[in-house]
Specification:
ACP, mainly alpha, phosphoprotein
Amino acid sequence: MDKKEIIQTTNAFLVEEFEADLASLTPDANLKATLDLDSLDYIDLVVVIENNFGFKVNPEDFQGIATFQDFYDYVANRLKQKELV
């Protein structure tokens, strides 16, 4: 899966699961503020990621994720790690 596919897949489930406005999902936008995430929403986000991409997410992984670009990069890196195993 290339970066473009990761972004399209991610944005599709964010729009569906979190009723996000697709136009607001820009690489430099703040993930938490744009999606209005609370602690329970993060749990939902973890479940959606695991179901869509097939890897386990550790809650502490989100500490370094501020923007959508950070999020896309995280997914891309985890998918790359998964392929190497």
